[in-house]
Amino acid sequence: MKTLVLILCGYVFLLGAIPAHAAEDVVQLQLGKTLFTKTAVPACSLCHTLKDANAEGAVGPVLDEIKPDTARIIKALQNGIGQMPSYKASLSDTQMQAIADYVAKAVSN
């Protein structure tokens, strides 16, 4: 019984050690995925292939192969690149950051 109490106390301690921002990160990544797959107009997934999003676009580069970092993604979203339009007029800075965070995390796995 004493062992069970110690184990439970250990779990409670570990749960308290999880940073508060971890939940915010999950929300940010989910927002980014939703924007990538559905909400952005046009949706990123229409053109780009990204395994984590089950996206198989045929126009833009395969993001799993080029593995862009957040800065590169933000720049492309703000300015456009090649056939990709700028999203400055349709997405907020927060939304662009969410997409960048999501894609960068997805390609790093």
Account of the 3D structure:
The chain has helices at 2-17, 21-39, 63-66, 70-79, 93-108, and strands at residues 49-50, 55-56. Helix 2 (21-39) packs across helix 5 (93-108) and helix 4 (70-79) crosses helix 5. It has five helices and two strands. Helices cover 60% and strands 4% of the residues. It has a single domain, classed as Cytochrome Bc1 Complex, Chain D, domain 2. The protein has a two-stranded antiparallel ribbon. The protein is mostly helical and 109 residues long.
Quickly give the structural class.
Answer: mainly alpha
From the coordinates shown, what is the CATH architecture? Answer: Orthogonal Bundle
CATH fold label: Cytochrome Bc1 Complex, Chain D, domain 2
Order of helices and strands: HHEEHHH
The tally of structural domains comes to 1
Order of strands, main sheet, comes to 1-2
| Total beta strand runs | 2
Mean pLDDT across residues: 86
- State the separation between the terminal residues, measured CA to CA: 41 Å
Shape: globular
Low-confidence stretches: 8-15
Number of helices: 5
The major sheet is characterized as: 2 strands, antiparallel
Say which CATH homologous superfamily is assigned: Cytochrome c-like domain
Helix % is 55-70%
Strand content: under 5%
- Give the CATH level 1 class: Mainly Alpha
Rg for CA atoms: 18 Å
